[in-house]
Amino acid sequence: xxxxxxxxxxxxxxxxxxxxxxxxxxxxxxxxxxxxxxxxxxxxxxxxxxxxxxxxxxxxxxxxxxxxxxxxxxxxxxxxxxxxxxxxxxxxxxxxxxxxxxxxxxxxxxxxxxxxxxxxxxxxxxxxxxxxxxxxxxxxxxxxxxxxxxxxxxxxxxxxxxxxxxxxxxxxxxxxxxxxxxxxxxxxxxxxxxxxxxxxxxxxxxxxxxx
Length: 211
Ligand code: 0O2
Prior knowledge:
CATH architecture: 2-Layer Sandwich
Pathway: Purine metabolism; ppGpp biosynthesis; ppGpp from GTP: step 1/2
Radius of gyration: 21 Å
Helix content: 40-55%
Pfam family, one: RelA_SpoT
Distance between the termini: 81 Å
CATH superfamily: Beta Polymerase, domain 2
CATH class: Alpha Beta
Subunit structure: Homotetramer.
Shape: flat
Strand content: 15-25%
Number of domains: 1
Bound molecules: ligand 0O2
Largest sheet: 5 strands, mixed
Organism: Furfurilactobacillus siliginis
InterPro entries: GTP_Pyrophosphokinase, NT_sf, RelA_SpoT
CATH topology: Beta Polymerase, domain 2
Strand order of the largest sheet: 1-2-5-4-3
């Protein structure tokens, strides 16, 4: 029995706080370099005790397997403007030496039956505790603002039905997820058109000067 949950969760709190600062640093660096940041904003949380206990029952996770088997006690979310940014962030994470990627789940190419889209990365992250280093599992979810909009609302609506929506509502949520993804695609297309026309604009003054 975990008797002191606060003590058990302490390294997870530490990991979430450290990772929030580090991942927000990506945005700061891009801004400093005057380049568009693939990271829009970052959030993080330690799973509430009640949710951990509920998931232990649902996924048959014994208490002594919690640290090894529950991957999202420490959770980070990275929100991006564009779908391409997600893959850029994933590449940046793959290059980092301060965490080890254990698993990747692409729920963008493989949309969940619920209509959920995001890119999940499970990492092992070392925190320094008073009795030495402890490696913590953390789940980093990378998604666009539109994917986050859908997931946030679907999650809060799900409370009423414990996530098991009636068929008709399920269909509507799936279609809403498709609509959010079409919005993502249109925004990317608009961005591409703008950068193309910007290219034309740049060439005009140069040509004009030559004449
Ligand atoms: P919270 O409140 O976000 O912490 P499982 O947890 O059993 O569903 P698994 O395999 O452990 O699945 O992990 P998975 O599917 O990679 O990620 C689980 C987390 O992804 C969820 O955590 C959600 O954050 C998010 N997620 C997955 N599917 C959905 C979905 O259909 N709708 C929404 N809104 N979010 C989803 P938790 O623990 O459910 O909740």
